[in-house]
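To start, an entry.
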Amino acid sequence: MARDNKKRFEDEKAKQEEARQKERIQNINNVLRSLPIANWAWPRIGVAFLKERSLSYTDKVLDNFAQIHMQGPIPIFLNYTRTDLARNKLAMEVLKNPQLTHLLMLDIDHKHPVNIIQRLAKWVLLDPNVWVVGGLNFRRSYPHDPCCHLFGEDGQIYAPAAWDKNGGLMKVAAIGTGSILIAREAFEEIQPPWFFNKYDKVWDDVWPGEDMGFSQKCREYGIGMYVDTSLTSPHIGEYEIGEANFKQAIDNGDLQMHDMKGVKLVS
């Protein structure tokens, strides 16, 4: 009898937890479906399109930017300036505005999915402790490796060669900033500059950009960085650059990638 009662209690508890989770997911979906985005109670996302001196390939990127803007996000406007300086200034804009909880930076040489705000916001709604999350993008120049890195067993940083095709968050050791959502807590925790270029490997002809500087700061401060493996904003050139181009470079034998197939997704 006692055993039966315990089982009924555990079954009822599991059903209640399942119902709570379904209600939570429903509430999150309701937020993500609501427009304008500026009316969301939380997260309050400031959206910035990082400007270049001119907008190239407008036929490929402009419509998506327009559709993102038409959803009514909170815009942060900044004049053209050096990229590392622009990102630091945007971080300062977030800190100066107590109403903003997050900064979303979208580079204009990418073709961003029109629902990119919702797809990245989903992760912070599911877990507010996710302070840094971006899309899985690929370098514009050959061999088009992923704009994120992982630590190998030897302690060195490598671009991942494989990931879960079903989508999820992959924790990374370094992250690109072409499409990245950052919580204000990260800027509050880290001492500026948040973004900086690194020149410690000049004689090796290696020139890490401001995204690698930001990633270094996140590691130093114990802030996790995550990539949504289902979300890509193709780099734009004469053609759209994504996963298929990277895989072709591997098939061509033009690079050797560290085998990271065993990387576990966190959600």
Remarks:
- DSSP finds seven helices and twelve strands in the chain.
- The radius of gyration is 20 Å.
- Confidence is low (pLDDT under 50) at residues 258-267.
